[in-house]
From TrEMBL:
HTH araC/xylS-type domain segment(s): 175-274
Keywords: DNA-binding, Transcription, Transcription regulation
Coiled-coil regions, chain positions: none
Protein name per its UniProtKB record: AraC family transcriptional regulator
InterPro entries per the UniProt record, alphabetical: AraC-bd, Homeodomain-like_sf, HTH-like, HTH_AraC, RmlC-like_jellyroll, Tscrpt_reg_AraC-type_HTH
PROSITE patterns: HTH_ARAC_FAMILY_2
GO function terms (MF aspect): DNA-binding transcription factor activity; sequence-specific DNA binding
Gene3D superfamilies named in the record: Homeodomain-like, Jelly Rolls
Species classification: Bacteria, Bacillati, Bacillota, Bacilli, Bacillales
Length: 286
C-alpha cells in the first residue's frame, strides 16, 4: 500500500486486489475498508463478519483484526487515518461532530445498497483522484472529502458490532471458538481442553477454524497474545517485560521474547522504548 508522498498520517489505497500474508494485526490509526468485489471473511476482535460487495467497515485499528479472502477476485478500498491529526488540521468541532458517533460506538459493519452504495463508491473515486495529486490544496480537499464521507455514513452506523448477516453452522462454531479463546487466551490451552469446553471434536474444530479464518487455532492464539503484549507495552512503559510475558499467557521469557521479535521486528525492550518515545512526542505536540 502506497503512503501519500507528503508522508502525512493518512494512507489511502483505491480498488486494489493485492493479497497480503494472512495475519492478525493492530495499528494506531482508525481504518475505513470498503469491499468492492469478491468474497471475504473478516474477523474483528472475536467476531466473524462474512462480507459481500457493498460492505463498509469502520474500525478502531487497535482492535485485533484480519481478512481471509476467498479464492477469486478480492477488490477493496482501504484507508487509515489518525483522528487526532484530523482534529488538528481540520476544524476540531466539525471533525468531532462527524466522527463522534462512529468513534464512540466502536467498530461498524455497514451494508450499502442502491443509491447509498453508488454514492459512497463515487465519493471514494473522487477521493482517489484528489489523493493522487501531489500538492497541498488537493490533499486538503481530500481531507474535506473524507469529512463529508464520515457525515454521509454516520446514519448507517449500527448500534452494535454484531454481524449483519446470519452465519452458517460452521461459522457459528468458529464464532464460539473465537469467543472462548478471547476469554481464555492468557491460560494454558490445548485441543483436549477446547474439545471438552465446546463439546466439539478436536479434529473437526481444527479443520473448520482453518477454513473460516485462514490460520490454525494456535497461530491465532499466538497472534492474540503477542498483540495484547504490544498493547500493554503501549499503555504502560514502566511495566516489566516478564510481567507482560506471564500476563498474556507465556511461561518462559526467552520464548516470549523470540516470538515477539519474529512478529514485530524488535525485542520487547526495544518496542517498549519506541512506544515510550512516541508517547512523549505525542504529548509534547499537544
Amino acid at each position: 500500500m502506497l503512503a501519500h508522498p507528503m508522508m502525512l498520517p493518512v494512507r489511502f489505497a483505491y480498488r486494489f486486489d493485492t493479497r497480503w500474508g494472512m495475519n492478525f494485526h493492530t495499528h494506531r490509526e482508525y481504518e475505513l475498508y470498503y469491499f468492492h468485489q469478491g468474497r471475504c471473511t473478516y474477523i474483528i476482535g472475536s467476531h466473524i463478519h462474512v462480507l459481500s460487495p457493498g460492505d463498509l467497515i469502520l474500525m478502531n485499528g487497535m482492535t485485533l483484526h484480519s481478512a481471509n479472502p476467498g479464492p477469486h477476485h478480492y477488490l477493496r478500498t482501504n484507508m487509515h487515518f489518525d483522528p487526532s491529526y484530523l482534529r488538528e488540521v481540520l476544524n476540531d468541532s466539525i471533525f468531532t461532530s462527524a466522527f463522534e458517533t462512529i468513534g464512540q460506538l466502536g467498530n461498524h459493519i455497514i451494508h450499502l445498497e442502491g443509491e447509498s452504495r453508488t454514492e459512497v463508491e463515487q465519493h471514494l473515486h473522487k477521493m482517489n483522484g484528489l489523493y493522487q495529486q501531489n500538492d497541498a490544496v488537493s490533499f486538503r480537499r481530500f481531507l474535506l472529502a473524507l469529512l463529508d464521507l464520515l457525515y454521509y455514513i454516520q446514519p448507517f452506523c449500527p448500534t452494535t458490532g454484531q454481524s449483519i448477516r446470519k452465519m452458517t453452522e460452521k461459522e457459528l462454531h468458529v464464532q464460539r471458538m473465537l469467543t472462548y479463546l478471547e476469554e481464555h487466551y492468557s491460560e494454558e490451552l490445548h485441543m483436549e481442553l477446547l474439545e471438552s469446553a465446546l463439546f466439539l471434536n478436536k479434529t473437526y474444530m481444527a479443520k473448520i477454524f482453518k477454513e473460516v479464518t485462514g490460520m490454525t487455532i494456535f497461530i491465532y492464539l499466538k497472534n492474540r497474545r503477542l498483540n495484547q503484549a504490544k498493547i500493554l507495552f503501549m499503555m504502560d512503559n514502566k511495566v516489566s517485560v516478564s510481567d507482560i510475558c506471564y500476563t498474556v499467557g507465556y511461561k518462559h521469557l526467552s520464548h516470549f521474547s523470540r516470538l515477539f521479535k519474529q512478529k514485530f521486528g524488535c525485542t520487547p525492550e526495544q518496542f517498549q522504548r519506541i512506544a515510550h518515545h512516541h508517547k512523549l512526542s505525542t504529548n509534547s505536540e499537544k
